[in-house]
Amino acid sequence: MEEMRSLGLTDVHKEPFPVYAWDFSGASVEVEGYDPMPASSFPPMPGTPREGLRAPMVDAGHGTAEDYVGLDVRGRIAFVRFDTERLPWMGPLAYEAELNGACAVVFTYVNGYAQHESGLALNTHDGTGRPTIPLLQVCKNDGAVLERRLAAEGPLEALVRSNVVANSDGTGHNVIGRIPGRLVDRYVIIGAHYDAWFHGYWDNAIGVAGMLTMAKALLEQGYRPEHTLLFVATDAEEFGAPDTHFDWLIGCHHMLEDHPEWQGRVSAAFNIDTLAFLGQEQLGFIAPPELLPFLRATAGSWDTQTFPNPEVWVKEQVTAWTETLTYAYFGIPPIQPRFALKEARETVYHTQFDDRDIVHEARAVETVKLYGALLARFDSQVFLPVAFSERVASLRRTLGRDRDAAIPVPRADGERAELDAALERLEGRAEQVAQTLEGVGQSDEKRKAANDRLRKAAGHLIRNTNYLNASSPEDALPQHVFYERDWRALEGAAAELRAGNANKAIEILRDDEAGVRGAWCALDMSYLAYHRHTVGSRNRGRQDLFWGKNRTPVMTDVWVELHSLRDKLGRGVSDFGAEIYALEAKAQAVAALYREALTDLAETVDRATALLVEVEEPPVQAT
Fold first, then answer.
1. Minimal CA–CA distance to 405: which of 345, 492, 318?
2. Tens digit of each residue's pLDDT (9 = 90 or more) over 370-384
3. 20 — phi, psi (to 5°)?
């Protein structure tokens, strides 16, 4: 707050919101013959008693359901080599152990995270789990020691300590300051989350610094914005709620929910989440399709000076990796500089190695300068630079996915015709609006009225076309895309079973990119753990979905079919009639959801068109 005030921002204040507070002050694992091994933990997992938890440690393999068969872990500490290509996240890993009676879990990553070359990386994330048993991670080097000792000696007497203070009635704080604009009640948000794991230099202290630097530069230049610029530092981006799949992005969600007066009045959100990772060779920006032409014409035309590849890329993306998803959920068009995630995620992301040494500061400075220029360019537009034709093209691409597919999309001739007609109406109306705006003139009244309609129409489309996948974190897409994927996988698997190819059917159902959503990990999980992580976590009746509420497409549970097929293959049984019947029945249910999604989308498009119909030059007032 003091930094915002010292820069000259006005109305600086902090806004409280409820969170599950999780205060972690260190953890360790001790076995005879070695110094205590430092460890990390994962919210909302509980700590141990102050004196620690002493119990035999047993090797539980990769922590899959099959690894626990015949293994007695009751009252013991399960040691797991966590393979992120077999189990989906830390919460399910802990729950599988809990179901088998373990009193705690100690794990090391096989892949995915904490793969720093030193072998010393400790990592943490939101756990999306039940706060029931302690869950600790040790680095690769210490994990290798435990693995060797357990293989050579069997169960080891171990002492684990995890110092956690949890408070279900905790309070988080968002901090907000502003630069008043000529339009006092029309806004642009510039945001960055300030909560972090470990040092949190790259994720996301440098993002907060970038936001404040933009504010400082604008104020020093005497810039008078059109919009009122809201500079927001959000809390609880990393974690904020227990036992829910949607336990992150909490602070931004509460901020937008607590300001209904902002609804329909925020033209864009310029978010910053990490900047200029050392291995990033090219600058890029993500946004929903409505803003892509503006970004291509501005940022896409720049040549950077500090990045090895000077071209700036622009991509359509709204992702739950960042608060772009939260802004889109509330109908606010988000923009964000994006980074090359994979290398950073696997080595330094959410570890103690997230410090200034992993950031290329000259590239970070250049990114902030360009981002500030982009903000000023957006703010100074006479009319909001939203391109509805780009949204139409994007939606048509999602509907053209069946052209070369071996299995076409479900039959939905009537619904598809309605949607095609709705898209044509929106496209036609958007062209008319573009012509109308050329003659609207420069008066504040006319500009404001036209921009309000543009903003509401774009916001309606953005809010109602971003649904969530089953993987986590995930990109958001129109919901019919997910139902189309599930239907094709179900039909494809049934076809393979009719041909006697059970292995191929299993492969189709479990494919991480094209299979039934969430099914990729089903064979490695017990039914309770699998159902809890997939269908159960997205139950539309739950009250803890936050930004997942009404944005979680219905999932199809194929755990029983997958396990039945694997069992039959093991026994040499070739009668797959029951599985074929079940998969075809589920395919028909998904086909109905697909048709319903097309109808919903047509209604969304028509509503946006109706909002644009009112973008006309206001009548001349009589004098």
1. 492
2. 999 999 999 999 999
3. -90, 105
